Automatic annotation (TrEMBL):
GO MF annotation: an example: metalloendopeptidase activity
UniProt key word Cytoplasm: no
Record key words, sorted: Coiled coil, Signal
Listed Gene3D superfamilies: 6.10.250.3150, Glucose Permease (Domain IIA) (2.70.70.10)
Domain M23ase beta-sheet core: 272-366
Location of the region described as Disordered in the Swiss-Prot/TrEMBL record: 345-370
Pfam family, one: CC_PcsB
UniProt name for this protein: Peptidoglycan DD-metalloendopeptidase family protein
Signal sequence, renumbered to the chain: 1-26
Amino acid sequence: MIRTKRIMSLALTCTMCLGLGIQADASELNETREKASQLQNQKKAAEDEKASLAAQLESIAADMEEIQKNIEAKEEELTAKEEELVQAKVEENNQYEDMKKRIKYMYENGNVQFIEILLESQTIADFLNKAEYISTISEYDRDMLDEFQAVVEDVEQQEAEIQKEYDEMGDMQDELISKQEEVSTLVSEKEAQISELDSQLGDTNAKLAELEEAAAAAQRKQSESSSGYVPNGGGGSVITGNGTFTHPCPGYTYISSYFGYREQPIPGASTNHKGMDFAAGTGTPIYAAASGTVVFAAYSGNAGNMITINHGNGLTTTYMHCNQIFVSSGQSVGKGQNIATVGSTGNSSGPHLHFQVEQGGVPVNPQNYF
C-alpha cells in the first residue's frame, strides 16, 4: 500500500514537472512564433517598398525616353534654324553689297547723271520725276536691307528660344539620371534587407520547428505519464494509418502542426487545423498522395498556391502554400506524381506543406490514410 502511494506520488511529481516544462517551452514557442510573424511582416513591408521603388524606376525610365525624344526633336529644330539663319545672313550680305555698289556708282557719276537728266528733260516736272527715281532706288535698297536684318534678328531670337528649351531639357535629363541612380541604390538596399530578413526568418522557422517538435513530444509524454501508457515509439514524424496514400513529401516526415485544435501560429491562422503541416525547405518536391483528377490549381488567398485532387468517392486531397505548381485543373495525375514544390505562399510562417484530406467535403485526419 505504501509502495503504491509512493509510485502514485512519483508519477504525479513527474507529471507536474513535465507540465512546468511544457509551460516554459510554450512561452518560448509563442515568442518564437511572434518573432517569425514580425519578420514576415517586415519582409512583406520591405517587398512592398521595393515594388513601389521599382514602379518609380519604370516611371523615370518612361520620362527619360520622352525627354530624349524631345531633345532629338529640338536638335532637329536647332539644325533647321541654323541653316535658315545662315541663308538669311547670306541674303542680308548680298543686299548690302548690291546697295554699296549702287551708292558708289551714284556718287562717282552723280553730277554727270544729273546734268544728263536735266538736258534730256523737256520740262522741270520731267526732271523732278527722274531725280525722284534715283532717290527711290536708294530708299528701296535701305528698305530691303532693313527687311533682311529684321529676318536675321527674328531667326536669331527663335534659335535662342529653341536653345533655351534644349538646355532646360538637358537639365531635366540630368535630374532624371540622378533620380534613377538614387532609386536604384534604394532598390539594392531593399534587396539586401529582404535577403537579411529571409535569412533571419529561415533561422527562426528552423528554431520554431524544433520547439514545436519538442512541445509535441513533451505533450505526448505528459499524456502518457497521466494515463500510464507506454508507447512503442515517439516523435513528430510517426505516421500510422491504412496505407491508402503515399507520402506527399517523402523524407520530410516531421509534422510541425497536427490535425485538430492548435494555438494560433501566426496572426490570421486558424486554431482549428484542418490538415497536417510537413516542415520542408522551399523547392522540395510535392507528390500526389493518390491518383485522381486535379479540380483546382491556382493561387487562393491565405492558402497561397494550392492544388486540390479528386480521388473519387468523395475523397479529395489539398496541397497548400506551394512555391511552384506543375499541374492544371482538369488534368489526371498518378499516385506519386510530382505536382508542385514546397513554398511559403499565402499566410504562412515559413516553408512547409499543408496537406489536407476531405471526405464528402468534411476535413478528416490525414494520418488515417498513410
